[in-house]
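Q: Here's a chain of 277 amino acids. Please give me its 3D structure as tokens.
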Amino acid sequence: MLIDFHTHIFPEKIASRTLAALIDGVRKEQGEAYVNGRTMNYTDGTADGLLHNMDENGVDMCVCLPIVTKMSQTESINRFAETIRTDRLLSFGSLHPMQEDWEEVLENLAEHGFRGIKLHHQFQGCRIDSKESIRVLKKAQELGLLVVFHAGIDIGLPAPYMASPEQIRNILTEMDGSNLIAAHLGGWMQWDDVEKYLVGTNILMDLAFVKDFISKEQCQRIIRGHGAEKILFATDSPWESAGDTLRFLDTLELTAQEREMICSGNAKRLLGMEDAP
């Protein structure tokens, strides 16, 4: 079984322009040369596009991660997230850490069967170790909700960075971090700091959008040092394809048990699916 724990889809009516806007952000931050001649998106950003890519690459299930970037979006985004949930697409919810009704939103998501939420502090304009963010993370843990959050630099957004490995480590003075999933192997393009501040903690990490930006040696060192039981297969679709991520995983010196945990075992445990094949 293969579970992709980090994907994105958008309502059909806005998918194309959302992708275009995000790619334009990458162009501004990385330059025209980065975008030219490179495959930027591997799906059209819709649920059907993701399912087609899953079928092509042998992915059984995906976790979809919506992001509330404006407080006014919270209700509509979570309503969309609920409508797309199927046996193959498991959507988390989202909220803005600064919104006044944050506690009510979290309780409502838990009551409606959501397994977790996605935060992106860079888009949301607040540090992960702010008091507003920490109260959300702690309440989510109390409610049994997982929290996936962007960690490290964002390829399409400028500094200052809101969820560096050091900032993430700061929140562990307030909670144990066992419900937290730091995307992009704990901190995109800040992997030396991941090794310094996060390896060996309770926080989980995913492999989304790392394969072209980290050496095999450092990736393997982080996985082994942190523990394969805390690493999740992920692509950041539509920005990466599962087949390519799998091929990168195959270049690492992992045992069959470690690979199984990363590809599905850890996800099944977190999602309460341990009896699934």
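Q: Can you summarize the key feature?
A: The radius of gyration is 17 Å.
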